[in-house]
Amino acid sequence: MIQKKAMNIIKVIICTVFLCGLIFPIFSAKAGAEEQDQTWEKIKKRGELRVGLSADYAPLEFETTKNGKCEFAGIDIELAKKIAKDNHLKLKIENMSFDSLLGALKTGKIDMIISGMTPTPERKKEVDFSDSYLKSGQSMVVKKTDLDKYKSLRDFDNKRIGAQKQTTQEQLAKTEINNADVHAMTRLPETILSLKSGKVDGIIIEKPVAEAYLQQNPELGFANVKFHEPEKDTSIALPKNSPVFLAQLNKSIKDMKDQGLMEQYKEKAAQSMEEDGNFFTKYSSFFITGIKNTILISIVGVVFGALFGALFALMKLSSIKPLKWLASVYIEFIRGTPLLVQVFLVFFGTTAVLGWDISALICGMIAMVINCAAYIAEIIRAGINAVDKGQTEAARSLGLSYGQTMKNIILPQAVKNILPALGNEFVTVIKESSIVSVIGVSEIMFNAQVVQGASFDPFTPLLVAAILYFILTFTLSRVMNILEGRMKVSD
Q1: DSSP conformation letters of 70-112
Q2: Whole-prediction pTM
Q3: pLDDT of 104-130, one tens digit each?
Q4: Among 78, 273, 309, 412, which one has the highest count of C-beta atoms within 10 angstroms of its own C-beta?
């Protein structure tokens, strides 16, 4: 009897140890996951939730004006506000092109993406996704005059199909239409404009978004075709291995569904999309902001580019071989790579490599300075070489040092030679500053694209942007001509 009781006690102990062996690892794994969720820890420490999106996708996300102030609106914006409020965080919206969002998320520029994004196998390899918060179908939009031509997807075989770059719509065009000539574009308004101008035969757009655009573009309509996947999930993208952050997002999404808030979000987005004035009274503030930032970026790029350019020019003219070699490598590399690549390297590299949390505007300025320095260095070097060598020889024979000769004799004469080329560089910088729009810098071109999405008018904002760029460059050219004329008089 005693042996039987002892055996039962041993069995109980074994079972207890076995259960502990199963349960403890689970709890320790959860605790470890919470401890290792660096993303959530950084967000809580910062007290700010940085949300990345592409605000040209009404009614999900777009910009509008209220009481003369620009603000973000849409279904995704309302959900982002709820998530921030649920976790007692400040909300910061980072607006950039859709194809830049994943890179910004992986390099830590943003904490999550809420931009009508569909989880795909390719994206799941790079980032994690929350539970679905919205289901939406896909539609094919064509000109109304072509509606009779397209009755099924097979009618689009071998046709030119437009879609936004790196989206589910682009993938559908490639997989569900035979031999489609897919034209992938950075922003949705560009696809609308390409259809209206006849560059493509049809465009694939998420149905709620397409309905918003068709209200403002009556010459377009829905082709009566169906895709094999009628509806797709829309989720929030977040960095991998962020279990606590993911749990918080799913908690807010579940709460939204339980309270039936989605219909309220849709209604609020529809109200924000209603017209409350003419084009210029409603969107002039966007263009004013764009002008200010364009001028600021251009001035910083040219002024600091000239300072560093002068340094590199002198280094290249130096007799010290290491300095000459370093300047030559820098100048050739910068001049041999596109400005777009340099902008992305600065934007993503400052966070991923250097760990600096720098705004998109500052990153854009740094990229412009780096680029301008290389070109201005060659302009200054050419201007110095254009000064008669006898000037240098005479100065040195009078006992002036190399530095004194350059400062007092050569550079004052070189300035007159380089001024026209420097003016041309300034004009070029004003126009090329539009490239920094890809990282969300609010200059003229970026705001023109924002207005495209908010107004559903793909053409007028581009025309306004072109006029503004012309006014800036024409004014600068006239100022440079006046300066050149005064220098000729002084001669």
Answers
A1: EEEESHHHHHHHHHHHHTT-EEEEEE--GGGHHHHHHTTS-SE
A2: 0.75
A3: 999 999 999 999 898 988 899 999 999
A4: 309
Quick one: angle between helices 360-386 and 411-432, nearest 10? 140
pLDDT at 276: 60
Q: Name the residue with tokens 């072109």.
A: 466
18-21 CB contacts, 8 Å cutoff, 24+ apart: none
Q: What are phi and psi of 261, to 5 degrees?
A: -80, -15
Distance CA 409, CA 400 (A): 10
Kindly tell me if the per-residue pLDDT of 281 is higher than 50: yes
pLDDT score at 27: 40
Nearest to 456 by CA among 142, 57, 99, 71: 57
Q: Are strands 112-117 and 128-129 parallel, antiparallel or unpaired?
A: unpaired
Which of 21, 224, 22, 244 has the alpha carbon at shortest distance from 111?
244
- Looking at residue 488, its pLDDT comes to 66
Return the closest-CA partner of residue 58 out of 77, 39, 82, 37: 77
At how many degrees (to 10) do helices 75-86 and 243-259 cross?
120
Q: How buried is 413 (Cβ within 10 angstroms: 0-12 exposed, 13-18 middle, 19+ buried)? A: middle
Phi, psi of 74 (to 5 degrees): 130, 170
* Average pLDDT rounded to a whole number, residues 83-96: 94
* H helix count then E strand count, the chain: 19, 13
pLDDT of residue 17 exceeding 90, the answer is no
The β-bridge partners of 237 are: 113, 129
The amino acid that residue 370 corresponds to is I
- What stretches of 144-300 adopt beta strand conformation (E)? 160-164, 181-185, 202-206, 220-222, 231-238
Give 96's Cβ-side CA count (13 Å radius).
27
